[in-house]
Design brief:
It is built from three helices and three strands. By secondary structure, it is α/β, with parallel strands linked by helices.
Length: 116
């Protein structure tokens, strides 16, 4: 959602910063359970956006384990794009498929997990 604020805030083209979410645009307003569980969907999203060597792909996953995000970053690296991962899980640091990792220690979440 923050990507949508870049054009009015910074005066950049909407194609410069693009958001991708597991489950597609519909997932912005309605939960699509399980969409984040398929790494192949993350890789496909990167391919669909035609990410290239001059691009940067930023993955965001609080737990650091989300397969969709991992798949997107792994595909981006295969293409030669720069990769960055933002997470709050220091224990996953060694296993993150990104060149740059932003991993602040923020303490436990007030609300955690999903039911079921």
């Amino acid at each position: 959602m923050d990507a949508s604020e870049c054009p009015p805030t910074f005066g950049v083209s909407p194609s410069l910063v693009q958001g991708i979410i597991a489950g597609g645009r519909r997932a912005l307003v309605r939960s699509i359970e399980g969409a984040e569980d398929r790494s192949s969907d993350g890789a496909d999203a990167v391919k669909k956006k035609k990410v290239g060597k001059r691009d940067v792909v930023v993955g965001i996953a609080a737990c650091g384990l989300t397969p969709f995000v991992h798949g997107a970053l792994i595909q981006a690296r295969k293409i030669g794009a720069a990769t960055l991962f933002v997470t709050c899980a220091p224990e996953t640091r060694k296993h993150l498929p990104a060149q740059i990792i932003i991993n602040p220690v923020v303490g436990p979440e007030v609300v955690t997990g999903s039911p079921g």
